[in-house]
Every structure is written in structure tokens, then in C-alpha cells.
Amino acid sequence: MKKQKALIIIKPDAVQRGLSGTIVKRFEQVGLTIIGFKFQKADEKTVIAHYPSTDAWFEKVGKRTLNNCQVKGIDVKDTFKTDDAITIGKQVKQWLITYFQESPVLVMAVEGYEVIEIVRKLSGNTIPVLAAPGTIRGDFSHDSIDLANETCRPLRNVIHASDAVEDGEKEVALWFTPDELFSYVRCDEKIMFP
Q1: Residue 168 near residue 115, CB atoms below 8 Å
Q2: How far apart are CA 77 and CA 84, in angstroms?
Q3: Could you tell me which residues come within 8 angstroms of residue 151 by beta carbon, excluding any fewer than 6 positions away?
Q4: What Å distances lie between residue 169 and 4, 30, 39, 42, 194, CA to CA?
């Protein structure tokens, strides 16, 4: 079995609330190896590259927003000035770019066996009200989609975590140069994986 990599970004809302150390501790305690770690102001170019710029991605994000508005009885044209899913997806991406630049972010690359599943489980549902207690988002975020849409901003959910093996590899390579990554064996790995 091969080790996987995942990218974790402690977002501006968590940094501004002083939650960085608490969040990092959760990933270390479970036994993941931190192979890259830096505190930085995210540049626009990196954030743009982090989120896809394909019509398929914009449509997926836009449709999710349209569906949520429909369920909640929100007039999407009043909020977004359009009901076109791709246009809404592009608006959401712009909100994300602005959000990631509100303050520094803490960017961390972790490695381990089945790291993607572990990181997702620890992080919790991306929608804070659906995140279980005990998860990072369940414990530290309470933002709602309705409020985010109403105030024309992204959902503030304290953390980004890679959600697929391919994404983990791609995202780590985007945010870190090879000389910023370190491979080593934790002492507890010697016991668990002799």
C-alpha cells in the first residue's frame, strides 16, 4: 500500500480566530505526518489555480447554489442577478479568491496511508451545519449557506482538505515546491507499520 498526500489549508476565518494550533494538533494526533508547513498570504494566481476554471466545475457549483436557493425559497435572480448556473459558479469562485486573501492562511501538506479518507473524516462535512460534532468543521464553524449567499460571499468553513488522491497530489504540488516538502518516518509509524 502506498502513502497518499493531502493538502490542508487553515482558512482566514480560522486563522483570524486563533484556531490554527488546535486544528494542526488534530491531524498530528491521529498519526499523519506533516511533510510541508507554511504561513503565507495566498496570492491570487495560486488561489485561481487551486479551484478549477472549467464550465463543468462552474456549472456544478452553480447548480448546487441554485438547488439550495430553490429549497430555501430564495429568489436567485435577486441575489445573483442571474439564474445561469455557470455564471453563478464564476461568482462563487471570485468570492473564494477574495476570501482566501482576507488574511494569511496556514498551508499544510500531510502524508499517510489512506490520508484522504482520514483528512475528510476529521474535517467533517463542508457545510458546517451538517458537520458532525467532533469534526473540525462541526466544532469550529457555524456559518450557513443562506447567510453566505445573502451576503454574497463563500461559506466560511475554517478548513480546506483535499477530497481525492489525485487532488491531494495536484494541490500539494501547487502550494509547495519540492524543496519545501520533507519525507521522514514518525516514531509511531515504526510501531504501526513495521
Answers
A1: yes
A2: 9
A3: none
A4: 8, 21, 20, 19, 25
Separation CA 10–CA 27 (nearest Å): 12
Confidence at residue 194, expressed as pLDDT on a 0 to 100 scale: 66
Which residue's C-alpha cell is 473540525?
136
How many angstroms separate the CA atoms of 99 and 192, rounded?
Answer: 39
Give the residue numbers annotated as catalytic, written as ranges.
160
All domains of the chain, ordered by start, with CATH? 4-41+104-192 (3.30.70.141), 53-102 (no CATH)
Instruction: For residue range 96-155, list pLDDT tens digits in order.
Output: 999 999 999 999 999 999 999 999 999 999 999 999 999 999 999 989 888 888 888 999
Mean per-residue pLDDT, 64-76: 85
Of 140, 134, 110, 114, the C-alpha closest to 122 is 134
Distances (CA, A) of 106 to 36, 73, 80, 143: 11, 37, 31, 20
Prediction pTM value: 0.91
